[in-house]
Amino acid sequence: MKRIIFFTLSIAFLTFCNQNSKNEHEKFQGDLIVFHAGSLSVPLREIATEYEKENPGVDIKLEAAGSVASARKITDLDKYCDVFASADYKVIDKMLIPSYSNWNIKMATNEISIVYNKKSKYADIINRDNCFDILLKDDVYYGRSDPNSDPCGYRTVLCCKLASNIYSDTRISDSLLLKDNRFIRPKASDLIALLQINAIDYIFEYKSVAIQNGFKYIELSDSVNLSNSNYNEWYKTVETKIAGKNPGEQITIQGENIAYGITALNKSKNPMLSYSFINFVLNKQKGMTILKNNGQALIYPPVCNNYINLPVSLQWIKK
Question: What pTM value is reported for the model?
């Protein structure tokens, strides 16, 4: 009798496990649409590939743009996505919460750098001390991204204003920001091709993107590069304005250390898949390792200011 009971319970247990495994597998099938910052293009392609290996029924569709432009696709154009990864967590806070999302996880940081290649003019002498003087030269051309579309764009403006104050040189905040505006592009990663073909000599770009593309770069001081949260009171001494949602409306952007954010959209057709993918991104041995290997500085453990709204599967995140 004991053997019969044991056998029956074993069969029931195995059936439950198989069914549970089947349900888990079925839960993580289908398409997943991810809108993301251009600076995340390289690591997210790798992350998506690895996730699809573990979940062969999933097809991840990545769509890169400036983070502000990506958010406006959701809010203004009613375009659909499941997951949104922004180069500035505040884009999620200000543009998506609470109408389109309920929570926002800070996952990574970065720094503004001046990026170039070996054929850039004055590449053999440029350094942290003279870089702004070189960018101001008439025979030097530089590019930056559009502040109205891309956080790297408005962070470049903030970076120049901080440098202007640090070096007591108003040319950096005035003349430099008026120079070479024909080379402004919707997102910073659009400038890579211009630098590769030597149409321009320098670009303001995230350090991680420079590393991913094998470019040379100038590491600016923490007082200028927006990388260090310990400098936030100093960073807040500068601000800039970008276009708001309505014509003629403007939004004030105040200096703050760079922090990337990620969230799932309320309208996701497969929220469990969205949470699973975000968990993969934030897993220290998986997505976080890929981000780190691509030059991205991490916020680990990740932080969520809207912890009470997190789904259960993400409640291991730090408050």
Answer: 0.89
| CATH architecture classification, 112-254 | 3-Layer(aba) Sandwich (3.40)
**Residue ranges per structural domain of the chain:** 25-109+260-314, 112-254
Judge: domain 25-109+260-314, CATH 3.40.190.10: yes
Which residue in 232, 257, 56, 245 sits closest to 151, CA to CA?
257
CA distance 152 to 294: 18
Q: Which class for 263: exposed (0-12), middle (13-18), buried (19 or more C-beta within 10 A)?
A: buried
pLDDT, one tens digit per residue, over 98-149 is: 999 999 999 999 999 999 999 999 999 999 999 999 999 999 999 999 999 9
pLDDT digits (tens, 9 = 90+) for 135-186: 999 999 999 999 999 999 999 999 999 999 999 999 999 999 999 999 999 9
